[in-house]
Design a protein that fits this description.
This protein has about 325 residues and is α/β, with parallel strands linked by helices. The protein has two domains: about 15-200 and about 310-330, P-loop containing nucleotide triphosphate hydrolases (Rossmann fold), CATH 3.40.50.300; about 205-305. Helices cover about 30% and strands about 20% of the residues. The chain is built from eleven helices and 14 strands. The strands form two sheets. It has a nine-stranded mixed β-sheet, with helices on both faces. Helix 6 links the parallel strand 7 (about 165-170) and strand 8 (about 195-200). Helix 4 crosses helix 9. It is globular.
């Protein structure tokens, strides 16, 4: 990609800032699991540092730089920033198409100690101090090609810019042999660390707070998703419930009234009286306040929170790399 060469040659400017900036991104279009990794970093750093998360706010219905409040909506800041803000209200969440403008506003108005950049691997006008690249186990970059021939945002060689490479969504029983084979295919540079993670699924949470029951194993489930790559989610639900029907929509999908009518009809056609709709945490953000989704249906919807978990006892090693970078960059700022 010629644009990347311009940055590499210094023909396009890349701004470095006087505080720790950690970027989380990918090469593959959609669904690699960036948000759980970002939330992991928040949990790791939030107790000791004042954090700000800066995102583009994909599919938000606003423009420019917005520093969110507790009253911000998913339409204003995007579904993933909204999800993070409500899970971690103590951090600052901001959105901006131009990350340089967002960082400058944050430094003036908030003065955070650390900035996390979400989905910013290709946003090279900012030079992050530490760059984390997420690779999807099910869609490895070494088998893919740049769009439109494949699903890569840029050539595979872009991985060279990363400091840390995380192969995400791995099977929990990933073997040491497969781990070594995948590292050979990634071909990390000497300075790059490679980690392997899987998705940990939590107990289902009711969309309506007043609902206190949890879906039982005997239930038939309608698995509803609007995410990039739902296969692991469907496989998990199939291991938990009697029968699982699936209904998929595009990533970050805005559910229309027609969509809701379809969902309601498919759910109504389920013969088992013991039934539930189970969706992802990100989709629940968009479903929760839909005026054309009936209260009766909302009381039958649950979502499953997820979190990143490390394989091969590498959690401590990863944590140490992050905290060492933060402390070193803070001393140099």
């Amino acid at each position: 990609m010629l644009r990347n060469k311009y940055f590499d040659w210094g023909w396009l400017p890349s701004q470095r800032y006087n505080l720790p900036v950690i970027s989380v991104g990918n090469l593959t279009v959609g669904g690699t699991g960036k948000t759980p990794i970002t939330e992991y970093l928040i949990r790791l750093l939030n107790k000791e540092h004042q954090l700000a998360l800066l995102s583009r706010g994909y599919k938000r219905k606003t423009k420019g730089v917005i520093i969110s409040s507790n009253h911000s909506t998913a339409d204003e800041i995007g579904d993933e920033p909204y999800q993070v803000k409500h899970k971690y209200p103590g951090i600052t969440v901001a959105v901006a198409e131009k990350r340089t403008e967002g960082i400058e506003r944050l430094m003036v108005e908030i003065d955070p100690e650390i900035i996390l950049l979400d989905d910013a691997f290709q946003h090279r006008y900012v030079s992050a101090g530490l760059s984390i690249l997420i690779v999807d186990y099910y869609r490895p970059i070494w088998k893919d090609f740049p769009f439109p021939a494949g699903n890569l945002r840029e050539p595979r060689s872009g991985k060279q810019r990363a400091d840390i490479i995380i192969v995400n969504k791995c099977p929990r029983n990933l073997s040491e042999t497969e781990r070594r084979q995948m590292i050979k295919k990634i071909k990390p540079l000497p300075h790059q660390q490679v980690f392997f993670t899987y998705i940990g699924y939590s107990t289902p949470v009711a969309l309506k707070k007043e609902v206190t029951v949890t879906p039982g194993k005997e239930m038939d489930v309608l698995a509803l998703t609007g995410i990039g790559y739902p296969k692991p989610f469907f496989e998990y639900l199939s291991s938990c419930y009697n029968k699982v029907n699936t209904l998929t929509f595009p990533d970050h999908h805005d559910f229309t009234k027609k969509n809701i009518d379809t969902i309601t009809q498919v759910f109504s056609d389920t013969k088992n009286e013991k039934k539930a709709i189970i969706t992802t945490e990100k989709d629940a953000v968009r479903l929760k306040n839909l005026p054309y989704l009936s209260e009766e249906i909302k009381k039958l919807i649950w979502y499953i929170p997820i979190e990143t978990r490390f394989l091969f006892n590498d959690k401590e090693k990863f944590d140490q790399i992050i905290t060492n970078y933060v402390e070193k960059d803070k001393r140099n700022s």
